[in-house]
Amino acid sequence: MEQDLVKRAIRGNQEAILQLIEKDEEIFYRMAFTYVKNEHDALDVMQDFTYKVLKKMHTVKNPDYARTWLVRVLIHSCIDFLRKRPQTMPLEEQHLIENAVHYDVERMLTNLTLNEQQIMYLKYYEQRKNKEIAEIQQIPEGTVKSKIHHILLKLRKHAGEREDWL
What we know:
It is globular, with a radius of gyration of 18 Å. Helix 3 packs across helix 4 (39-56) and helix 5 packs across helix 9. By secondary structure, it is mostly helical. The protein has helices spanning 2-10, 14-23, 25-36, 39-56, 66-84, 91-96, 100-110, 114-125, 130-137, 141-159. 17% of the residues are buried.
């Protein structure tokens, strides 16, 4: 049934497209929230994401990769939003940091580039396999493995801990 829904969505059926988004809406919202760090901005990203999907769903060539395509559109919507947003940290975000461990992890992740943050999010928050990350990022699977290794080394170095810390 889902394959039929995907095919109708690719053919331009807007109701099918919206059903496809609604099916994973909670996951998409959490992913957007992780990127933009507050509810209002996450809702803005979701609105932009929905608009882009409605306009471009017909460009998906293989129905098997529709979900991967949706995730990529969402990531690009988040990146576009972050590029347009002023680089100041809102006061409300500062109050959300409740404990030292959370703060330390958050601070360490800010030392990563946006691309590195995306890879870590996909690997450890979404628990995606390297192959899926490679498809989303449009890079070879070996490059994903290499990048994850280098990102973890970078985090270890920043943490000032032994190599086996992470």
